[in-house]
């Protein structure tokens, strides 16, 4: 076993090291010099944070906004579907005579379409 001097040294280190760390990093000058300049890189701005509704009126307004957004997306989707359906109808109308004429030509010449 080592002597009492080693135990005293270890005890001193156990006390000194955490206290030295707290004094060094707890210094307000160190904080202002090293933390404040880069703080915005790690944390978002306070204004951009999401704040959940806290009162029943806030909840109702948030639900109304969500409903309006959902209805607007649905309306856009329906308009897009209608536009695609109309363009598909015009494309099929333009290709139907071609397909019919190809079938008639194949029937005349007794060829089989693959």
Structural write-up:
With 114 residues, the protein is mostly helical. It has two domains: 1-42, no CATH class; 62-114. It contains four helices and no strands. It is elongated and about 115 Å long.
Secondary structure layout:
Elements: H1 4-25, H2 28-34, H3 39-42, H4 56-109
Q: Radius of gyration over alpha carbons?
A: 38 Å
Gross geometry = elongated
What is the terminal separation in angstroms? 95 Å
Q: DSSP strand (E) fraction?
A: under 5%
Number of domains: 2
Order of helices and strands: HHHH
What is the arithmetic mean of pLDDT?
A: 86
Largest sheet: none
Number of strands: 0
- Give me the number of helical elements: 4
Q: In terms of structural class, how would the helical and strand content be classed?
A: mainly alpha
Share of helix, binned: over 70%
Spans of 5+ residues with little confidence (pLDDT < 50)?
A: none
Q: Can I get a quick summary?
A:
The chain is 76% helix and 0% strand.
Question: Keywords, please?
Answer:
single chain; 114 residues; mainly alpha; 2 domains; 4 helices
